[in-house]
Amino acid sequence: MLFIDGSWLYHVRPFLMNLDGRPEFELDYKALPLLVKGHLMQQTEGPVDLVRTYYFGMTAVNKPGHDNVRERQFYEMLNKRCQYHTEVYEFDFRSRENGRRENCLEVGLTSMAMLHAMQPGTFDVACILAGDNDYQPMLRQIRALGKRTQLVAVKGDNGFYPTHPRMLEDSNLFDFPPVFLDEHLDRLQYHRSESLRTCDSCGKEELTTFTSDWFYCRSCREEYRSMKSRQQAQES
Ligand SMILES: [Zn+2]
Q1: Is there a single domain that holds both residue 53 and residue 83?
Q2: Are 129 and 110 part of one and the same domain?
Q3: CATH code where residue 174 lies
Q4: For the chain, how many structural domains are there in total?
Q5: What is the pLDDT of residues 150-191, one digit of tens each?
Q6: Same domain flag for 150 and 212
Q7: Residue 30 C-alpha to ligand 1 middle, in angstroms?
Q8: Is 0.85 surpassed by the pTM of this model?
């Protein structure tokens, strides 16, 4: 079973894009679980059944001038195109203004991984795509239950090392060597294809790379945006 800390992955994506001068790099979320599965098959020298991919993500609420359409589209793409199970938590901007810290994502990932680790026969190996040292206690407990663990990490370069060194050095945390995303960019590159789609609002056809179930053409999207900003200007 694969557990993805979406907030960490979001944070390292720009680094992957800049690596080897790949301004065109776009992560293929469908290829990601396959890469992890292939790595495990090599390590265990046997068949691997990837039971499920969990993606833990955030969505901003009460953020002035922000609408969540892109986030919704992204999570829908993970669900429908990539068959991920998504758990999305609200990140309330008001609580940040009040100086409160919210860790729903980390706690959510940890509780889900622990829950499954305790259910007999659910998984043998927990693959964790994350970089924070905060996951250490969880990893120790999963291993204490007799399950094995594997890290999906980013090696980093030029002063950017997003995987906490202790996650890489502590040999009591993992049962296999880590998979480094930055070593497999060719396999993780998403190849976008354009297709002609009909706008759900005005019925016009337009060439697009959007893959979501619903589709709005460029002019409908612009109209919606300017309507939104007029509304916000009236409210404030
Ligand atoms: Zn339209």
Answers
A1: yes
A2: yes
A3: 3.40.50.1010
A4: 2
A5: 999 999 988 889 999 999 999 899 999 999 999 999 899 887
A6: no
A7: 29
A8: no
pLDDT digits (tens, 9 = 90+) for 64-109: 887 788 888 899 999 999 999 999 998 888 877 777 777 899 999 9
Tokens of 96: 């940040």
DSSP-H helix ranges across the chain: 6-18, 31-44, 69-80, 93-97, 104-118, 136-144, 165-169, 185-188, 218-235
Q: At what angle are helices 136-144 and 104-118 packed, to 10 degrees?
A: 0
Structure-token pair, residue 148 = 């094995």
Asked whether residue 57 carries a pLDDT value surpassing 80, the answer given is: yes
Tell me if 211 sits within 8 A of 77, measured CB to CB.
Answer: yes
Same domain, 149 and 229: no
What's the 71 CA to ligand 1 centre distance in angstroms?
A: 20
Distance 212 CA to ligand 1 centre (A): 15
- 121 & 30 share domain: yes
- Measure the CA–CA gap between 133 and 131, rounded to whole angstroms: 7
- Domain residues for 211? 195-235
| Distance of CA 163 from the midpoint of ligand 1 (Å) | 43
